[in-house]
Here is the input.
Amino acid sequence: MTEILPSYVRDAWWTPGDDAAASAAEVRDASTGEVVARVSTEGLDLAAVLEHARTVGQKRLGELTFHQRAVLLKQMALVLTERKAELYELSARTGATQRDSWVDIDGGIGVLFTYSSKGRREMPNGKVLVDGPVEPLSKDGSFIGRHVYTRLPGVAVQINAFNFPVWGSLEKFAPAFLAGVPTVVKPATPTGYLTEAYVRILVESGLLPAGSLQLVSGSVPDLFEHLRLGDHVAFTGSASTAERLRAHDSVQTGGVRFSSETDSINASVLGTDATPETPEFDAYVKQLVTEMTSKAGQKCTAIRRAIVPAASVDALVDAVRERLAERVVVGDPRQEGTTMGPLASTGQRDEVLRQVRKLQDAGGELVIGTTEAPAGVAAEGAFVEPMLLKFADATAPAVHEVEAFGPVASVIAYDSIDQAVDLVARGGGSLVTSVATHDPEVAVALATGIAPMNGRLLFLDRDDARSSTGHGSPVPHLVHGGPGRAGGSEELGGIRAVKHYMQRTAVQGSPAMLTALTGVWHSGAEARPYLAAGEPHPFRKSLADLRIGDQVASEPRTVTLEDIETFAHFTGDTFYAHMDEEAAAANPFFPGRVAHGYLLVSWAAGLFVDAAPGPVLANYGLENLRFITPVSPGDSIRVELTAKEISPRETDEYGEVRWDAVLKNQDDEIVATYDVLTLVAKEPTPVPQPA
Here is the structure.
């Protein structure tokens, strides 16, 4: 008898006792019907699982900075890459072809790589994330405020759908882990054995901090009874299940965060300009067939409604029929030549056929495919053919409401852009709508109308057809989610997703207090000018010695008319404000001829730099540069450069230092402000001696 699939809880593998064997659910190979695994959680203490995450997991993850967690994500991605052949072999049993498995497995690994990279590039090497600028709250600057993100104190619970057992889990795990929140994964039963396999690889790698990732293989009937404030549930599945879970007291009154990504009737619009002889028409047909057959149409982002100009409907149907006949072979994905596998289970197959019958009863004409079992495949398998229906009535409610979660789409016609917008909106909110057009006016008109009804819009034309990631492929850099029926939540979207597992808090206090709380120096907090403090120039300090607040406060330098003219002729910037007194004086922003802003920034560098070789390895940028007060001939400027933020890189011998630069004139008025970015060695380095 096939063994029961284990869970990984409290940092150990767990299976139920022998008395659970009789009631364990059987999971079968999608192509052959052979039993792959048996699933049960009888006797599992879910309360203890959650508490382990809140205590051990929170403690271990809380010891790490954002960058340290990001490095671990990369290491996990590398381990999974090394052993992905094992995952591909198992994935075939779910009905996935090689291409389907690539989307799921390599796509999931890619999310880990992306969040590792973004975590190190876009987040500080600390534990608090600052959000937005400083808000002055007093005239003298002694009381300020800003927003910060800190991690949630609970557990991230993910309840996943059957269609993406690897990607669907890792796209939730990566941002939660980066935020510092431990995860409990509950995969869907039909494909949970593939989730178990990737978790086992990570466990064996030794990379997982204790309590950071737990896996529950099977049902969780009393899960929500044990959730509390500080916990977060991310659900992927049906809209009806999402609404039932959202209505639970733990969510309604208990403070548990709940996000959902649910089924949606996604659309793809063929633009009025994309007639059958255009590249856009061809790209549209190719994309539609891909979305019908990729993962056998079992994608929450798949195209369910092909919204097409009335004059092109018949041509579209013919083109789709031809492409399906040429390129799609239904069968066991382990057999050579198969391009579309079965659905995940016979239960799912039966559900898809029920939904197709509903669409037929509502006026949908089956113009491609059949509800009969495909020829030449195992009767025990969950096979269906690709099916395309055509609705004479584009406003028939069923086409906008009923989803057959398989290789099924419907074609409906429109006569005007306004009608196309209306048809998209009838879906009640979608994850994605794509538009095939090469006409910017068509694109703008459609986007204006349909953007509020979608989480993502893809515009397909001859210029991006080859490079496009496709209608049905969310990317970790951009938001995945959508309004209304699509669940009303967001996942992915780069660092936005990390913030879903954190609390944004407004913090008010003195500059010194906010400096301590955020790890970022604020103007008005203690600064240590190196001459006054008797310390080395800050550029002579490695990261081991440099401290927030270390400062260069320069002597003034006077600007002459000769300086301005020399800079103008040397650079070629002879803009009238610098060279024509009468024209400059007529400008309401200038008192007459003024110094170039870039002349002042260049001089500032000369005022604060220490020229000799040392720990500062490179200046790699300026950010947030603003010129505030014009500088006239005869004025003088000085600079205050203060170490603002220090971020050691985890995998390099150097780190990043952000310096607060303020230029002032002889009247102590602010001339310019900006941030200077440098790369600085972590440890003191020997100064090279002249040969």
